[in-house]
Amino acid sequence: MSHLSQTFDPEAASVSVARRLVRQALRDLGVDGAVDTAQTLVSELATNAVIHARTGYTVQVDCEGETVRVSVLDRSPAKARVRNYGTDATTGRGLRLVDALASGWGVATQADGKAVWFEVPAGGGNGASDADAWTEVADVEALLAQFDDGSDADVRTLVWDGSAVIVGLAQRAA
After folding, report:
1. What's the topology of domain 2-121?
2. Which of 63, 73, 150, 162 is the most exposed, having the fewest neighbouring CB atoms within 10 Å of its CB?
3. pTM value > 0.85
4. Using alpha carbons only, what angle is made at residue 28 by residues 129 and 14, rounded to the nearest 5 degrees?
5. Contact 113, 77 (CB under 8 A)
């Protein structure tokens, strides 16, 4: 079993550092297939620690056999939970994304806070179609419609291809 751990201050800039830590740790372990999903999900959990827990947090990366587990430990006693916000909300989708893209996830109560963790296969993916899983979680068209400014300008189209979000430009239909 391989293990890496690093503690961060509760600052927005720490999220990108946590992402790079996970990327480098997984590449060093030779499990490049897990990098994209793990980076995406640690971003969500680290952001939650900064915004909601408002405490320092520790990122742990473990790899045992064909499973990568990433945990984010914070010092808040508040339990992390999936929330159901409207399509116009600008927050509240992080754990839904974790649920959709991870092969498993959970929350473990600690003596001084909690650990939110996820697992992904070392080879990548989650055993299901990532694109289908995310589509079930987010009605992207409804979300984008909430921010329609009524103009005929080019709009960005976001598409999940199973490993990355593809951003394209399309002419808005009249």
Report:
1. Heat Shock Protein 90 (3.30.565)
2. 150
3. no
4. 80
5. yes
